[in-house]
């Protein structure tokens, strides 16, 4: 069986995905690379505490065929655009490059609707730049583009809470229901379904596609 590697495993989506992949039959091992110890213990989990600024010191530990880029922060938490760019782009781009050189074949990226390397929006520009860079490495690239990701977090994100309140009713409006918030664990389950699929995957999955994958698995 394949080996998976995740960065961003201490975040909402990454931690949920780590648990789900470890409990699945898809992977024999799940490598987690993070700055702090992830909150998961499982016989198949292999946790690596690393300094993302010094990837050359630990790149040789990457053994995965499939990698999952789940890192993300906010401008407020990062403290500056430079720091946010480092987390959302630099660390993940460096990891993807190292993994590709080590033989990784597939890269699942938690991206965003509207991600575009030419966007005037700083966040969407970072996401677009990462998407483009990963594709340039020659991976089979799968871009996951949910709407707002809802989760319980230790840091209070007022914008996220407000967004959930405003966007929640869209699930009742035809044409807008695919823009509703999605729970981090629901998103992680959808990613795991895609990773386990025996069929060729598309390059991009928006929220409606993610929900369709979950519905198919439920019916199956």
Task: Describe the 3D structure.
By secondary structure, the protein is of the alpha/beta class. It has one domain (2-219): Rossmann fold (3-Layer(aba) Sandwich), CATH 3.40.50.720. 40% of the residues lie in helices and 19% in strands. It contains 7 helices and 9 strands. The strands form 2 sheets. It has a 7-stranded parallel β-sheet, with helices on both faces. A two-stranded parallel ribbon has the order 7-8. Helix 1 (12-23) packs across helix 6 (184-196). 35% of the residues are buried. Residues 156-168 and 170-174 have low confidence and may be disordered.
Based on CA atoms alone, the radius of gyration comes out at 17 Å
Q: Using the 3D structure, state the CATH architecture.
A: 3-Layer(aba) Sandwich
The string of secondary-structure elements, in order, is EHEEEHHEHEEHEHEH
Kindly state the number of beta strands: 9
Summary of the model, kept short:
With 220 residues, the protein is of the alpha/beta class.
SSE inventory with pairings:
Layout lengths: L1 E6 L4 H12 L3 E8 L10 E5 L16 E4 L5 H4 L2 H21 L4 E5 L11 H15 L3 E6 L3 E2 L7 H10 L14 E2 H13 L7 E3 H13 L1
Parallel strand pairs: 1-2, 1-4, 2-3, 4-5, 5-6, 6-9, 7-8
Helix pairs in contact: 1-6, 3-4, 6-7
Highlighted features:
single chain, 220 residues, alpha/beta, Rossmann fold, 7-stranded parallel beta sheet, two-stranded parallel sheet, 7 helices, 9 strands, globular
